[in-house]
Amino acid sequence: MKKTLALALAATTTLSSGAFAQEITEFRIGILGGENAQDRMNSYQCLADYTTEALGVETRLFAPADYNGVIQGLLGGSIDMAWLGASAYASIFLQDPEAVDPVLIKVNLDGSVGYHSIGFARADSGITSLDDMEGKVFGFGDPNSTSGYLIPSIEIPQYKDGITMESGEYFGEVSFTGGHEQTIVAVANGDIDGGVTWADGQGNWEDGYNSGALRKAVDAGLVDMNDLVEIWKSAVIPEGPVVLRKALPADVRETMTTLVANLYENDPDCAYGVAAGDTLGFQPVTHDMYTSIVAARQAVIGN
Question: Among 161, 216, 254, 258, which is least packed by CB within 10 angstroms?
Fold first, then answer.
């Protein structure tokens, strides 16, 4: 039977929700891109409801059109919490190391905390690997995406001599679709020949793996994975962190960390929506997990 988060939080803090209302007037959760805005809002509404219950203030959800909207919201103080990709977190850290703290990381069903950038094409295209993508249209998601740009831009050129990220050199054209869902739909519709998105790489291909953008697209009825084929997979990437603004009151930060950490135990369906598929929930994480991603981001993008 589903527990209320208020009961779960009572075991970890003795502060009442009224105490929070004296310090903050609302709590704002940013939702990184990956699917259309309404679907993102629907997936997070349960978390917003639990947050309102736990803090005693209104909770507002923000689903900007691109990753930079969440990044700038956290930097500017108009967003209080978000689950970021590792590259988006690195961008914030490089611009202001004191803006946010990484507090939690998603855990896969096998206990690991990584995922992959997945290259894919239509199954009927004759494309089975990056070797078949020469002269064809290749799509990235968002420039601030780890799996949708940063890691592929580093690892794909290592796959084969002559591959670059410039249009007209190896790929006939390199384009940004705007997000993971857009890339998946563009490939499925034949608008582009191949692209990259993210998945934990566990479970079955026909399900869109256990979690990630492909799983969300399958759940939404946007794609039949039997119509797609995997053509490339990156090395393991550390899952991005749930972050909280450092300027938030300490009791608010503690309560929200506990709430999200206990979300899977208390409401697995809510955790499924927030975590983009099947997981074991979230566990603590620190900045040390992302030092290599920060270095990679600085080298490739700058900030």
Answer: 161
Helix (H, G, I), strand (E, B) or coil at 32: coil
- Does an H or E element contain 140, and which? strand 137-140
State the residue for tokens 């805005």.
37
- pTM over 0.85, yes/no: yes
Helices (H), 221-302: 250-261, 263-266, 268-274, 291-300
- Return the closest-CA partner of residue 153 out of 165, 166, 142: 165
76 contact partners, CB below 8 Å, separation of at least 6: none
Are 33 and 179 within 8 A, CB to CB?
yes
Question: Roughly what angle, to the nearest 10 degrees, separates helices 291-300 and 151-159?
Answer: 80
pLDDT in tens, 47-106: 999 999 999 999 999 999 899 999 999 999 999 999 999 999 999 999 999 999 999 999
Question: Which residue in the block uniquely carries the two structure tokens 């209104």?
Answer: 58
Distance, CA of 226 to CA of 229 (rounded, Å): 7
**What's the CA gap between 68 and 62, in Å, rounded?**
12
What is the Cα–Cα distance from 198 to 241, expressed in whole angstroms? 15
